[in-house]
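User: Second chain of the day. Same drill as before.
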Amino acid sequence: EAMTESPFYQLPVGDLLLRQESVAKCLEPSMGCRSFWPHLRTHMTYCSFRNPRQNPSVYGGDAVCSVETSGGRRKVGAKEMLQTQKIMRVDLVASP
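Assistant: Same format as last time:
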């Protein structure tokens, strides 16, 4: 049975938060994450709170979720998520 490639590339918010400044300084910032990662230009992308490389990666119990980043745990509220989306320009945002 042949494996088919997923039509979406998952971009965990914990990874995107740390790269916002780099993406904003790219030659084509209007392309968002596709400017920083050119191999994504022909693919659909989605931003998720869960990170399959880290278990657990999302923590609740507060008014906002906390996500695991390589720099430690970070709270991500609606305003920070919208700011990340303005810079990264992913196709879909999956919230918990």
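The mean pLDDT is 87.

User: Great, on to the next one.
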